[in-house]
Amino acid sequence: MGEFDDIAVSRPADGVTLIVIARPEARNALRTRTLAEIAAVLTAAADDAAARAVVITGGVKHFAAGADLKEMAPLDAIGVLTHERPRHWRAIQSFPKPLVAAVCGYALGAGCELALACDLVVAGSNAQFGQPEINLGMIPGAGGAARLARTCGKALAMQMVLTGAPIDARAALAAGIAVEVDEPESAIARAIEIASLIASKPPLAVRAAKEAVLRALEAPLSEAVAADRQAFALLAASEDRREGIAAFLEKRTPRFTGR
């Protein structure tokens, strides 16, 4: 999996890649190197047929407590605009395969934005989600405000972004940020379990399904429905569709190959 300074990478289940942010001394703050390493793993996984889903976590104590302010503080407007961080964020946000987050402890600032960029979030009962940038004279810079508004609506997004106050795991579940809440010790295992289930599905259909849901958040309804229909038709040419139907009719477990 390669050597990294800020993350650890493993394969805990068939088809599943696990990324663990490993900067406990900084509460897993997302410095540029951290983002670059996450982006590199996701870029490689996008082209790896054996990697069908990815789980990202920071462990049971902290997911990521924001960006590294010591690194960001010296940057002026031009420095911010020309920095490499947005390139790494684009690689993370455009990852075409399912990305599942196991969030325990703090997911603040850039950490909350990383969780929001994932497709599914399993929250530990100790999780705290927040965008505290307003307290530092800033606003979320990697999509936090936009994704919160789309995920949980105007009212809660305004509260979180304008006050900087975090919400807990149960509030995140109610708001649609998280899909379920588990004890911290089991949240990561549960995220891997979900990713493993997804990895067992036909890869072409999984990719098309992710695209369909994300498209529905941005495109007009008529365009989204038309695009869904086109993807539905294109999948009719896949071997996996034929295998899936045959396995269902024959009452056996399908063998999906990604073709």
Please, could you describe this protein's structure?
The protein has helices at residues 32-46, 69-72, 77-81, 85-93, 110-117, 144-152, 154-163, 169-175, 184-199, 203-216, 221-235, 239-249, and strands at 7-13, 16-21, 53-57, 62-64, 99-103, 106-108, 120-124, 128-130, 167-168, 180-182. The protein is of the alpha/beta class and 259 residues long. The protein has two domains: 7-199, Alpha-Beta Complex (2-enoyl-CoA Hydratase, Chain A, domain 1); 203-249, Lyase 2-enoyl-coa Hydratase, Chain  A, domain 2 (Orthogonal Bundle). Helix 1 (32-46) runs parallel beside helix 4, helix 6 (144-152) packs antiparallel against helix 7 and helix 10 runs antiparallel to helix 11 (221-235). The longest helix has 16 residues, at 184-199. The protein is globular, with a radius of gyration of 19 Å. The mean pLDDT is 94.
Backbone structural class: alpha/beta
Count helical runs: 12
- Total individual domains: 2
Strand fraction band?
Answer: 15-25%
Instruction: Output the CATH class name of the largest domain.
Output: Alpha Beta
CATH superfamily of the largest domain: 2-enoyl-CoA Hydratase, Chain A, domain 1
- What's the total number of strands? 10
The CATH architecture name of the largest domain reads Alpha-Beta Complex
Oligomer: single chain
Mean pLDDT: 94
The topology string of helices and strands comes to: EEHEEHHHEEHEEHHEHEHHHH
Q: What sort of overall outline do the alpha carbons produce when their principal axes are compared?
A: globular
Mind telling me the C-alpha Rg?
19 Å
Strand order of the largest sheet: 1-2-3-5-7-10
